[in-house]
Amino acid sequence: MSSKHVLLPQAIESEAVDLLKAADCEIVLSPDTDPATVFPLLKDVQAIILRTGINITRELLDHADSLDIVSRTGAGLDNVDLEAATQKGVIVTSNLGINTGSVVEHVLSLMLALSKQLPLLDKAVRSHNFSIRYQYLSGELKNKTLGVVGFGRIGSELGRVCHQLFHMRVLAYDPYLTNDNKKAYHSWVNFINKDDLFAQADVVSIHIPLSEDTHHAVGARELSLMKSEAFLINTSRGPVVDESALIKVLDAKKIAGAGLDVFEKEPVEENNPLLKLDNAILTPHTAALTKECVVSMAVEAAKCVLDVFNGKEPPNVANREVLTSDRWKHLKK
């Protein structure tokens, strides 16, 4: 184990670093996430623990001749060239499920803040406009309709919480969910087509990964179907929503508001019109970045690395086809 080197393009939590050091791993910490800086550090490293600050491209992977594993601290894999990693026989893992509770809490916070008009009411109190209370601007989530696009771990948990806590009617659209999986929810979820979901929901929450198929999956057509009093929430990936189309409907007040944790370009550019819209609540891609969750994600990512180093199959391998190669047949389940 003493010869194993682990590259950190970004710093990770001390609990995870201590775990690696206790296993006699050498930590290679990049001073920044510029690919030009990271490129020479890839030589002779056996593992990369990856956050979101850099894309691990084919070019970078081609320079990592000793690489065994890329271990993501989060669930998304859009910053890893999975095809290139698979061709090189590099195992890629993610932390599916670790951030579910944190993201669901964040979605609920955005839903409640929009429904209760918290930013507006806070601003009014600070401006000595206490009489705004008589305008009855706040709404309720109770008995409203939630539409969930993508009914995986996070989407289904959000639906469960909203159904049980607010007695919300839950609609879901997920073309990848099998009929057998859908049956498990039949008593409280209606699976319908995407157009009907956008037309009927009082709150639409997006929970799909970013891919070529999902880029701008929510565009002008879907947004045009929404109720004027409805809210859109996106905590998945920015480009799954056509941001320019969303800005137009928000600016024209064709929907009531949006809660966005992700954006087409991050960080958000200074001239982005979203920054001037008072019916949008914006957070800086922090849904999973609670104090507790970032530690758990980093520790689990480190454990995946150590599993491989110790001859064990790590959980949540994204490219399982590599495990059938001679290189990895020795891994124990």
Q: How would you describe this structure to a colleague?
A:
This protein has about 325 residues and is α/β, with parallel strands linked by helices. The protein folds into 2 domains: about 5-100 and about 290-330, NAD(P)-binding Rossmann-like Domain (Rossmann fold), CATH 3.40.50.720; about 100-280, NAD(P)-binding Rossmann-like Domain (Rossmann fold, 3-Layer(aba) Sandwich), CATH 3.40.50.720. Helices cover about 35% and strands about 15% of the residues. It is built from 12 helices and 12 strands. The protein has helices at about 15-20, 35-40, 60-65, 80-85, 100-115, 120-125, 155-165, 180-185, 195-200, 220-225, 245-250, 290-310, and strands spanning about 5-10, 25-30, 45-50, 70, 90-95, 145-150, 170-175, 190, 205, 230-235, 255-260, 280. Strands 8-7-6-9-10-11-12 form a 7-stranded parallel β-sheet, sandwiched between helices. Strands 2-1-3-4-5 form a 5-stranded parallel β-sheet. Helix 7 links the parallel strand 6 and strand 7 (about 170-175). Helix 1 (about 15-20) packs parallel to helix 12 (about 290-310) and helix 5 crosses helix 7. The mean pLDDT is about 95.
